[in-house]
Amino acid sequence: MNDRDQSPSLDRRRFLRQSAGAAALAGAIGMLSDTGVAFAALTDADIAAAAKHATAGPAATKTLTVMARDLYPHDQLDDSCYRNAIVFIDGKLSQDKATKTLLHEGVAQVDAAAKKAKGKPYAALAAEDDRVAVLKSMEDGPFFQKVRGEMVVALYNQPGVWKTLGYQGPSADKGGYIHRGFNDIDWLQA
Q1: Which of 169, 184, 155 is nearest to 7 (CA)?
Q2: What is the pLDDT of residues 123-171, one digit of tens each?
Q3: Per residue in 66-78, is it b (16+ CB within 10 Å) or e — as a string?
Q4: Rounded distance, CA 98 to CA 164, Å?
Q5: What is the pTM of this model?
Q6: Which of left, alpha, beta for 33 (phi over 0: left; psi -120 to 50: alpha)?
Q7: CA dist 47 to 19, 75, 111, 152, 175, Å?
């Protein structure tokens, strides 16, 4: 029995579509489909817990978490995966004064653009299409590019995310893939 037998049912094509396709989203954010994710699940207590490890603060953490889910939508991922990624990004970016400023000003810009378009802060917009339109208007800016680029690593480098998406994880510490099903292609449909 290989490790794949213990992972959630997910074929290779679906996995690639969900994870690698999300990474390619940078140039195609306007093509996001409605995921139907309810962002009301982000409670103030959850945001406050994540934000106490972050320099951005609770309001910015909530905005960044919703933004992260809009950038890399996976219905099967829990909000905590996105919050963990935001705390990681916040910690990394806040080590440098210029990027810390970029983070704070960028969140303010996202909220200002949302208020201008729909009269509410970004995280308060219920419709995903409205949030995506706000992000689309900012996609060429340095804040958007920085968050999008950092989120790829911060989100997809979490073992909990790997398990949920069906990725077995790195194999170097287990002797590589050659001894762990390298020639086993039972996932390939004839």
Answers
A1: 169
A2: 999 999 999 999 999 999 999 999 999 999 999 989 889 889 888 778 7
A3: bbbbbbbbbeebe
A4: 35
A5: 0.66
A6: beta
A7: 25, 19, 17, 21, 40
Query: In residues, how long is the chain?
Result: 190
Least Cα distance to 66 among 24, 50, 157, 20 occurs for 50
Half-sphere exposure of 77 (CA within 13 A, CB side): 28
Collapsing DSSP states into helix, strand and coil, what is residue 188? coil
CA distance 64 to 106: 10
Please report which confidence band the pLDDT of residue 96 belongs to, taking 50, 70 and 90 as the band edges. confident
Residue type, 4: R
Q: Is residue 147 within 8 Å of 106, Cβ to Cβ?
A: yes
Tokens of 146: 């920085």
